[in-house]
Specification:
about 220 residues; alpha+beta; two-stranded antiparallel sheet; 6 strands; binds 3-iodo-tyrosine
Length: about 220
């Protein structure tokens, strides 16, 4: 068998539920996910590393183009590295809020109440920095292109956010722009592009969240 082929054993761990249980599970999961909120104030409370490992393993089960799994999760808990990330991010964010962002963009951000200060980058116990692997190299150093990289990484991040919420952890999808500094600080290779910092931990006590609301089913879907 060539390296590129693989066996196709029968699917045995598929689980079908009786209709009633299916409805209950769908409703219960919706209720659970309805309580997911992005927060911007984190407690310094520690989180067991094993929980983060399992959440990342869950994210690693995401489908991906040609099963190339083009993601890398760099988990930062070291205080010094977190400080360097905060300093670099705030430098970019100051430029963003003071001049780089258009008025329309700043207007769109107003309801969120964000600004260039990012204390959560030091306070939260974990910064999960997600990189997209644009390609890999084979044993002879030849480039192997990856397909649907952004899509695959996006799906994986969605599963990570869901897994974190499932264990009662909060997170913030933080995207300082540009964020090439992450590659430098974390010493990542050329084939990796930073996508996001998922700030992860417990919410600060009494944290406030904007009253934003979500679109209704009929606004986000069409059954034909
Ligand atoms: N990166 C900036 C701005 C920002 C942009 C979007 I789009 C958001 O949804 C939130 C913030 C910041 O983190 O403040």
């Amino acid at each position: 068998m060539s390296k590129r082929e693989c066996t196709h054993p029968e699917l045995t761990d598929y689980c079908e539920y009786p209709q009633e249980e299916m409805h209950e599970r769908a409703q219960a999961f919706f209720e659970q996910m309805k309580t997911r909120r992005t927060i911007r104030s984190f407690s310094e409370r520690k989180v067991d590393r094993k929980i983060i490992e399992l959440a990342i393993q869950t994210a690693g089960r995401a489908p991906s183009g040609a099963n190339q799994q083009p993601w890398k999760f760099i988990v930062v808990s070291d205080a010094q590295v977190k400080r360097r990330i905060r300093e670099a991010a705030e430098k970019e964010e100051r430029a963003f809020y003071n001049s780089r962002a258009s008025d329309q963009w700043l207007d769109a951000l107003k309801p969120l109440g964000t600004d260039a200060e990012k204390p959560f980058l030091e306070r939260a116990p974990y910064l999960i920095v997600i990189f997209a692997e644009n390609y890999q190299r084979d044993d002879r150093g030849e480039i192997i292109k990856h397909y649907y990289v952004r899509d695959s990484v996006g799906i994986s991040i969605g599963m990570l956010i869901t897994a974190l919420h499932n264990v009662g952890l909060a997170c913030l999808t933080h995207t300082p722009s540009p964020m090439q500094f992450l590659r430098k600080i974390l010493k990542r290779p050329d084939n990796e592009t930073p996508v996001m910092i998922l700030v992860t931990g417990y919410p600060e006590q009494g944290v406030k969240v904007p009253d934003l609301g979500k679109k209704k089913l009929e606004d986000i879907s069409l059954f034909i």
